[in-house]
Each structure stands twice: as C-alpha cells, then as structure tokens.
C-alpha cells in the first residue's frame, strides 16, 4: 500500500502527465455539465417528475440513459450522447470489408485515416439528424407537459440542431482527450456516463435492503469477483512462440540462436462489439413486443428482457457475432505473410499456408471460451435481477457496461504506467500483470 501511495505521488511529479490528467478531468466535467442542459422550451419540472415516477422500470430507456450519462432521460442537448459516433465508426469498419475504396483508404496510412475520420464525422451528423427527430417524437413527446404546447417548425429545427451539435461537441471532447489528455477519449466519455449512475443505483440498492446488510456485503464481494474474472479474460492471451531472424550488427550476428518472441492471440479479441451488435438486434423485439402482452407467447417472451427465451437468444447471437467479429479483427493469412517477410516463423510449422492454417486453428479454439464468456457476461444482469437486485444496479454486474468500464480502466492505467516507466519510475501497478508491461512485439486490439 505504501508503494502504491508513492506511485500516486509520482504521477503528480511528472508535469506532462499532470497536465494531461487535469485536462482530461476538465473536459469530462464539461461533458457532464452538458448532459444536464435541456433542449430549448423543455419543461424541467415535467422531465424530473417523469424520471422519478418511472425509476428505471423501462429496461431500454435505462440502458440508453446509462450510455448517455443521463442525457437521454434529461431531454438534454446531449441526449444522443456519443453513440451516433460509435455507430458511424462500426459502419465504416464494416464497409472496409466490402467496399474496395474504403479498403484502399485503410491501407494509405495517416492520410487514409484522416479521410476515414472525415467520412465518419459526416456519417455521424447524418445519424444524429435521423435519430434526433425520432427521439423527440417517440420519447420526449411521451412525457406529459415536457415539450412546448406550440411546436413550430422553428422549434423543431432548433431542437434537432441542438441535439446534433451536442453529439458532435461530445465527439470533439473525446478527440481532444485522446490527443491532449490521457486514455481513449470516446471510451472515457462512455465510461463516465456509466459510472455516473453507479452512486444513485448503489444507494437505491442499500435503501431496498437496509434490513439485510449482509446481502449488501455479499453483493459487493460477488461484484468484485466478477470484475476480477472479467479482467483475467480481457487480458488473457495465448502466446504462440516465434523464432525471428538473427540481427546483424556490424560484422557479427546478435544471438546465434535467433531471438525468441511471442505472437499473442487474445482470448477476447472482439472486445465488447459482439454484445453491442447482439443487443442492437434484440432491441427490435423489445421495442415491438414489450407493450404487446396479448400478442402471443413468443412475442411476450421476447419482450421480457429478463426472461429465459430472450437471454438464450441473446447469448446465441453473441457467440455467433464473436466468431464473426474475430474473423474481421484477425487475419491469419496476413499475419503469416508478415511473419514470412520479417523472417520469423513458428517452431515446427512451415512458413506460408501452414502457418496461416495453424494460426486460424488456434484462433478458432480460443474464440469458443471467449464467446461463451461474453455470453455469460451479457446475461449476468438478468441473473442479478432474478436474485432481487434492484433495477439499475443490476447492470453493473455484467453486460456492455462492465466490459467497457474494465477495458477503459485498464487502457488508462497502461498509458499512465507508460509515462512513469519512461521516466524511470515504478509503474502504477508495480508487481501486477497489467498489460502495459507487454513487450514491444505484442499486438492488442482496443475498444
């Protein structure tokens, strides 16, 4: 503990790191303030009264509000949050598989990346322009007395423009954090939005179980164990031994036997994306059937997000999407060609086709437990709900929110540790197995 406190002090001693952290906290504060600025003409009392009455009963509404940091239920200028940009990024990534022009831009290095970022921002504006009127007409208008009595064309134009500007401002804040601050800005904004709901959810859970303090302690222990397991899986890699070519320095070769390195294959290479894809698809039956109790057994079952049919189908979709997204992220043929060009090889495996087949078989084997883990994480909130954990607090026991929080915290710790190690200081997590200490030849994929 003493060493940990000393390492915290070391962070403040590094001027550049201190400035980056302060800038990051300042921009996050601006983002949080923006989530409470309501659209022009909206009745704040009606919105607050509606939020207190529902108290997280609508599952879909609670999820959207969590990812927007409360801006969704606040009918704020940042009601859409950062999610339109995430959707645009996913679309551009998928287009990179099918559209040759996008593939060409991806292979053009920095110039291509700038072009893709420009198209992503344009697509974000288009998505916002479509989602903003839908949000106002479907959600905001359902709150009694929230919107102005006379909704003129000028008001609609102003409201939609504010929402589009709010989302793009959130994107700008995220990019500034990435460039000038610490951590991945977009991911940090999502994480802050999720964590902002934790105190109120935990207080509600304590109030609901004030006569059973032992249950609260047990829930905290279980939550810590789930987080620990999530960290182990997120950080888990299958190290494939590599032999690289000898390096020639001057007139002699360094290391007669060749340098021994490792090719790390992540157990969870797809990250959180399969859960996002699966939940996006499952949102459709939730929206259609959640209110149709007389629409048949199948419709009612799929409309219940805590039911066994819904969660079974969700788990199946996550397993399928995990294999799909892993195939996008990892290209065994390209990896084999890169190894061959660099003079590296896997011991006992011939370079070329055999290496590609070997890597593909390894990826297929380690993807199965990774996909099953993601499926389990996704249905943990429903298991928590079945254990009488209050609505809202249950989402912190699994699902997308837990994976995002763990991934972002680990990524931020890696960057802080890199600053400390570059200045010959002990790392923030000295003695731990944080992947910030990985060798230079290891590869990883972020959120």
TrEMBL record:
<dbReference type="InterPro" id="IPR030659">
    <property type="entry name" value="SecY_CS"/>
</dbReference>
<keyword id="KW-0812">Transmembrane</keyword>
<feature type="transmembrane region" description="Helical">
    <location>
        <begin position="21"/>
        <end position="42"/>
    </location>
</feature>
<dbReference type="GO" id="GO:0006605">
    <property type="term" value="P:protein targeting"/>
</dbReference>
<comment type="similarity">
    <text>Belongs to the SecY/SEC61-alpha family.</text>
</comment>
<comment type="function">
    <text>The central subunit of the protein translocation channel SecYEG. Consists of two halves formed by TMs 1-5 and 6-10. These two domains form a lateral gate at the front which open onto the bilayer between TMs 2 and 7, and are clamped together by SecE at the back. The channel is closed by both a pore ring composed of hydrophobic SecY resides and a short helix (helix 2A) on the extracellular side of the membrane which forms a plug. The plug probably moves laterally to allow the channel to open. The ring and the pore may move independently.</text>
</comment>
<dbReference type="GO" id="GO:0043952">
    <property type="term" value="P:protein transport by the Sec complex"/>
</dbReference>
<protein>
    <recommendedName>
        <fullName>Protein translocase subunit SecY</fullName>
    </recommendedName>
</protein>
<keyword id="KW-1003">Cell membrane</keyword>
<feature type="transmembrane region" description="Helical">
    <location>
        <begin position="122"/>
        <end position="141"/>
    </location>
</feature>
<keyword id="KW-1133">Transmembrane helix</keyword>
<dbReference type="GO" id="GO:0005886">
    <property type="term" value="C:plasma membrane"/>
</dbReference>
<comment type="subunit">
    <text>Component of the Sec protein translocase complex. Heterotrimer consisting of SecY, SecE and SecG subunits. The heterotrimers can form oligomers, although 1 heterotrimer is thought to be able to translocate proteins. Interacts with the ribosome. Interacts with SecDF, and other proteins may be involved. Interacts with SecA.</text>
</comment>
<keyword id="KW-0472">Membrane</keyword>
<dbReference type="InterPro" id="IPR023201">
    <property type="entry name" value="SecY_dom_sf"/>
</dbReference>
<feature type="transmembrane region" description="Helical">
    <location>
        <begin position="366"/>
        <end position="386"/>
    </location>
</feature>
<keyword id="KW-0653">Protein transport</keyword>
<feature type="transmembrane region" description="Helical">
    <location>
        <begin position="216"/>
        <end position="237"/>
    </location>
</feature>
<dbReference type="Pfam" id="PF00344">
    <property type="entry name" value="SecY"/>
</dbReference>
<feature type="transmembrane region" description="Helical">
    <location>
        <begin position="308"/>
        <end position="330"/>
    </location>
</feature>
<keyword id="KW-0813">Transport</keyword>
<feature type="transmembrane region" description="Helical">
    <location>
        <begin position="75"/>
        <end position="102"/>
    </location>
</feature>
<feature type="transmembrane region" description="Helical">
    <location>
        <begin position="153"/>
        <end position="173"/>
    </location>
</feature>
<keyword id="KW-0811">Translocation</keyword>
<feature type="transmembrane region" description="Helical">
    <location>
        <begin position="392"/>
        <end position="413"/>
    </location>
</feature>
<feature type="transmembrane region" description="Helical">
    <location>
        <begin position="267"/>
        <end position="288"/>
    </location>
</feature>
<keyword id="KW-0997">Cell inner membrane</keyword>
<feature type="transmembrane region" description="Helical">
    <location>
        <begin position="185"/>
        <end position="204"/>
    </location>
</feature>
<dbReference type="InterPro" id="IPR026593">
    <property type="entry name" value="SecY"/>
</dbReference>
<dbReference type="InterPro" id="IPR002208">
    <property type="entry name" value="SecY/SEC61-alpha"/>
</dbReference>
<dbReference type="GO" id="GO:0065002">
    <property type="term" value="P:intracellular protein transmembrane transport"/>
</dbReference>
